[in-house]
Amino acid sequence: MPVILVASQKGGTGKTTTTVNVAAELSRLGHDVLIVDCDKSVQSASTWAQDRTQDDSLPRIHAVQKTGNVRETLIDLRGRYDYVIVDAPGHDSQEMRTAMTVADLMVIPVRPSQLDLDTIPGMAELVQVAQDMNPKLKAVALLTQVPTYSSATEEDEAKDFMLDFPQIPRIDGALKIRKAYRDSIPAGRGVIETANTSAKAEVQVLVKEIQAWL
Question: Could you give the domains of the chain?
């Protein structure tokens, strides 16, 4: 079964937000989903999954914590769930690198800011190295925290920048800056389980694209 790695060399890009919302949508679609939380300092994804158990109306999403070399753990877990989603730490780490040797798809959240975009060349090199050991690994970039106001130019500028790195194609969908993403987390919900239709649509588009890449 597929292993999806959500990772970046930079913190604050929306990795955990991406992880839990993808998990919630896949669960809504009837899949058995496990989150592997590899961030030992924060453990936000694990906390979200635990908070979710307080609401019996929500489909169960399992979560485990694992740090260090996660390769063998992921090889074992992939046979037990429909989808395994790895939430890696927000920096270059052993967890990220060892997960890349197993993952089917690496989703790299990137904010439309130059500091975030500057991490793309390094990530492209890491992906190429990992593909020597794991030829099936695919990597895609996901724009996150995109401004919603019509006069913003950051999204178009970021898209132009990413064209220089075809080894990490950009997913067409994007996650915008929306309060719904922040508000849903404490309740252990994804935005798909809220009333915000715009945020729901973003996540549904994202998950369809992820499934198409797998």
Answer: 3-213 (3.40.50.300)
Rounded to two decimals, the pTM is 0.96
- Comparing CA positions, the residue from 14, 18, 24 lying closest to residue 189 is 24
Give 83's strand partners: 33
What pLDDT sits at residue 202?
A: 97
List pLDDT tens digits, range 85-126.
Answer: 999 998 899 999 999 999 999 999 999 999 999 999 999 999
- Token pair 């993808």 in the structure block, residue: 22
Sheet holding 62-65, edge to edge: 62-65, 33-37, 83-87, 3-6, 105-110, 138-146, 170-176
User: DSSP characters for 10-44?
Assistant: STTSSHHHHHHHHHHHHHHTT--EEEEE--TTT-H
Nearest-angstrom CA–CA distance, 17 and 2:
20
The 3-state DSSP class for residue 5 equals: strand
CA distances from 119 to 8, 122, 141, 161 (A): 8, 6, 11, 12
Q: Which helix (H) or strand (E) holds 84?
A: strand 83-87
Residues of the chain with pLDDT under 70: 150-152
